[in-house]
Specification:
Elements: E1 11-17, H1 25-36, E2 40-46, H2 52-61, E3 66-69, E4 83-84, H3 86-91, E5 96-100, E6 103-107, H4 109-120, E7 129-133, H5 137-148, E8 153-158, H6 161-175, E9 180-184, E10 196-200, H7 218-221, E11 224-229, H8 238-245, E12 249-251, H9 254-269, H10 275-289
Parallel strand pairs: 1-2, 1-3, 4-6, 7-8, 7-10, 8-9, 10-11, 11-12
Antiparallel strand pairs: 3-5, 5-6
Length: 290
């Protein structure tokens, strides 16, 4: 179901980033607008380096209702905003801009999208011991989510222990508790020998590295009872396959992608999307992802 009539009352939303040509976000938002009868169109905007402030200022001047922000601008955009949601400010990154009087307010729906996606799969963060792989953009949102939702302990593994230490310090300070323990990936054998939840937040597993995982040792995966890979394409990463071969449950990041988009749509339209509509869109995303 897609929108075919565009008129003077049609509101515009979009995605700013570089690149944006691969995005599936228009499928999510334009399908939602058609389903819910909202007079809205969503399009991607390729923004060149050093033009992010111009893009945000121009979008506001053009009366654009809201924007998503993708790599590499989730942190760069902060200086162009009129207001920032407190949690997004702690994270230091936003991915959703909502039009307000005088400018845009920035939110991070990656964090709420990940939490909602994990809950739908029956995955609990509160009180859990978690292995988080990576300390970059996607892993950063996951780290702050674990801190906010009071994970018992998070072992933050990264190839650069200095970067892991920096992120761990940020999260520990933000939530005033020592919940994050930074480690080098190569030290994974020092992890506790008991069932752990794992979140895979690196780019290893994406094309052209589909046949690689950050950790290849099958012994590591015997400690993982459940794993969530933030990558959604390919549908099954090698990380997920290794978890399943060791007897654990594994999920990809497609529902996170969906639910962060749902959260943005709800902010822009001040509306709640029914769960049955969300599941319809999820089936469309699965078809496109195969």
């Amino acid at each position: 179901m897609t929108k075919t009539e565009i008129g003077g009352h049609t509101r515009l939303c979009g995605l700013i980033g570089n690149p944006v040509e691969h995005t599936v976000s228009p499928l999510i938002h334009n399908t939602l607008a058609g389903m819910l009868g909202h007079d809205l169109v969503y399009v991607p905007f390729h923004v060149e380096k050093d033009r992010i402030r111009d893009a945000v200022k121009g979008a506001y001047g053009l009366n654009i209702l809201g924007l998503n922000v993708t790599v590499p601008y989730k942190s760069d955009v902060l200086g162009a905003l009129a207001e920032i949601d407190p949690l997004a400010e702690k994270i230091g990154a936003v991915n959703t801009l909502v039009r307000r009087e005088g400018g845009y307010k920035g939110y991070n729906t990656d964090i709420s999208g990940l939490y909602r996606a994990m809950r739908i799969e029956g995955i609990k963060i509160e009180g859990e011991e978690i292995v988080l792989l990576g300390a970059g953009g996607a892993a950063r949102a996951a780290a702050f989510l674990c801190g906010e939702k009071k994970a018992k302990r998070v072992y933050l593994l990264n190839r650069s222990p200095e970067k892991a230490g920096s992120l761990a310090d940020e999260v520990n300070r933000a939530f005033d508790r020592e919940c994050m323990e930074p480690m080098a990936v190569s030290d994974y054998e020092k992890l506790p020998c008991r069932p752990l939840l794992a979140i895979q937040g690196t780019s290893v597993g994406l094309h052209p590295n589909e046949e690689h995982a950050v950790i290849e040792d099958p012994e590591f995966y015997r400690r993982i009872h459940t794993a969530y890979d933030l990558i959604y394409n390919p549908e099954e990463t090698k990380f997920m396959r290794l978890v399943r071969e060791a007897g654990g449950r594994a999920f990809n990041g497609l529902k996170m992608l969906l639910y962060q988009g749902i959260a943005a749509y709800e902010l822009w339209n001040e509306a709640q999307v029914p769960e049955e509509k969300i599941q319809e869109i999820y089936r469309l995303l699965q078809e496109k992802n195969r």
